[in-house]
Amino acid sequence: MPIEIRELHIKVIVEESITPKSEVLDMKVLKETVTRLCEKEVKKQLQKFKER
After folding, report:
1. How many alpha carbons fall within 13 Å on the CB side of residue 17?
2. Could you report the per-residue pLDDT of 1-52, keeping only the tens digit for each?
3. Which whole-number Å values give the CA distances from 9 to 13, 16, 34, in the listed order?
4. Helices then strands (H, E): number in the chain?
C-alpha cells in the first residue's frame, strides 16, 4: 500500500551569534538526520493507520 506524504514540516531555530562558529555543517550528516526523522514519522503514521 503506497503512502502519500502531503506535508513536510521542518522546524529550525535561527539565532544570530555574536562570535562566529568554526563548526562546518556536514551535508551528509544533515541529510541522514532528515531522512531518519522522515522514516520515524512515516512509521508513526503507519502505526496510527493500522490502529484504526
Report:
1. 6
2. 677 777 777 787 777 766 655 566 778 888 888 889 888 988 888 888 887 6
3. 13, 22, 11
4. 1, 0
